[in-house]
Amino acid sequence: MKTSVHSVHSLYSIILALGIAVSVVACVASTSNQEGIWGYMNNSALTSKVKSTLMANPTVKYLPITVTSCSGIVQLSGVVESAAQEQMAVKIAASVPGVTKVEDHLVMGHYTARQ
What we know:
Layout: H1 5-30, H2 36-55, E1 65-70, E2 73-80, H3 83-95, E3 101-108
Parallel strand pairs: 2-3
Antiparallel strand pairs: 1-2
Helix pairs in contact: 1-2
């Protein structure tokens, strides 16, 4: 029995779509307050806005700061080299529309960027 290239691609497309659907459902189910798919998408959008705003600032641009968000609360974690950098990162995150609170989990230490 011959299998056409088109039917193989269709099968892969179906498997990919199912995988994406399962991933989205798993992410939504893991959200602690069960805010649903729209809440998950809003959290992702807010996280992206905060990350891009941090990347636009030369003081904190190259620091390894991780951003997560849930229901308007943004958590910053990572390494900063000074209190000034820490304060700047928190101030930048708080300035993003939609952020209601910033949780500062940044630690001071020495960070060397990868070349």
